């Protein structure tokens, strides 16, 4: 007996996808907001405020021993 | 008989966290990692200054339920406590292992059965890392210790995020190798975490899809720290060895986004299921797979093609579509999937993400780590005119993975509603304290939670008790990953007021 019927995989070639949002069956989590372009300035502004102030020193100081 | 598994299978994730003390690149990472683990263990009443991980191998099971109380010959007094924090190694109440591996704190999630649970207990590990950092920061005189959920330092070192999948032993290993390599070469487009810089030491400016791709040198092998192989052959099942193998996957990146973790675990489990079932018959082997792995990683436009041994040239997305379509035909022919909705969730996200990546790549932001990171980096490049060799972009790449919500850049995006989350903060909190109900992790974690003072040691496949009044340690083997569930031992645990009564109940035949 075959399993339950499913839609065939739909490969959308060369067709721009819809704006990001969870697929229909996804649980109601946070929906992704509109593209970054819409509020890029405010996102970058906020991140400016938390970025390590001395990027070069911060990067140089991030030294790890190898792991698996 | 071990049946073929679908998206449902015993699985787990191990994360080695990057560790650093701001302004002190020479701080001893082994000592710091020990502090990270010990401070968390202490705050939860778990002793870490003892050899609390049981390394002993186990005997086969005897009892019908898989329970068999063993008498160890060692007297507890012969086993001295270990005070060295770099050996910190504990089992947590959620069934996970938290310990120092090489020079990194490592969280190994408890065994789960479905990808969404893998996401949840992986996120619990992130929360445990965060709490550890907070606890250390609150100690007077303690230098701040930061943890990062990433896999490369940009100076030439990498550390792993490993997946584990239980498989029936009877599946021929050559089949696993043949069908998994093309999948692993290409799945990074779905679950890569993105990295600033090309080459192991990032000497070539640019951005690539995967954290780990540049660190792989061979196709198949036992090593995990040198000459890393696409397929790792470590065969340590932590279960009944003649029935199971544990496939230890070392090629994955540390993911921060739920959908990427779901797809990493879910699609891999499906491909393993198809291999176990003999559903994959065509040979999709890729020529020079290590070079192909790196070529795919180095092209975020996803236009790069790889050459198959049959002569076809395909993009990584094309190869992923072949696996997805094979999975659909395989699932349509089965009526025995025990978790159809979990399987459908994986299939739906897989198809959706492949379609997004095949159209406007950036439309996968919020679902796929590397795309989300690249979108932010591109924002900075455009606003500030930065080139790929700018330190600020390298700093963003590192800070992306900081476990602290106020500093970690992915956390900042999540708080702004820019990520698709599959688990709630409340579910993550609960998973920090409680084990999954449907594996032996339930027994292991609850023993630690209920009987901490009497748990002498524990491991994936045993819990060892030091019972007052008994001269010998009492070892309970848990060799069957699906025995020790809440349904099987929940009542028994609830009704046992102490270890003595628990051991008595376990020793009593049903």
TrEMBL record, chain A:
InterPro entries (alphabetical): Ubiquitin-like_Pup
Cross-link (Isoglutamyl lysine isopeptide (Gln-Lys) (interchain with K-? in acceptor proteins)): 68
Coiled-coil region(s): none
Modified residues annotated as Deamidated glutamine in this record: 68
Keywords: Isopeptide bond, Ubl conjugation pathway
Biased composition regions of type Basic and acidic residues, renumbered to the chain: 1-14
Stretches for region ARC ATPase binding: 25-62
Organism superkingdom: Bacteria
Processing and modification events after translation: Is modified by deamidation of its C-terminal glutamine to glutamate by the deamidase Dop, a prerequisite to the subsequent pupylation process.
Chain intervals for the UniProt region annotation (Disordered): 1-37
Protein's pathway: Protein degradation; proteasomal Pup-dependent pathway
Pfam family for this entry, one: Pup
NCBIfam families to which the protein is assigned, alphabetical: pupylate_cterm
Domain notes: The N-terminal unstructured half of Pup provides a signal required to initiate unfolding and degradation by the proteasome but is not needed for pupylation, while the C-terminal helical half of Pup interacts with ARC to target proteins to the proteasome.
Subunit organization: Strongly interacts with the proteasome-associated ATPase ARC through a hydrophobic interface; the interacting region of Pup lies in its C-terminal half. There is one Pup binding site per ARC hexamer ring.
Function: Protein modifier that is covalently attached to lysine residues of substrate proteins, thereby targeting them for proteasomal degradation. The tagging system is termed pupylation.
Record-stated family: Belongs to the prokaryotic ubiquitin-like protein family.
Protein name: Prokaryotic ubiquitin-like protein Pup
Species whose genome carries this gene: Intrasporangium calvum
Top-level taxonomy: Bacteria, Bacillati, Actinomycetota, Actinomycetes, Micrococcales
Primary gene name: pup
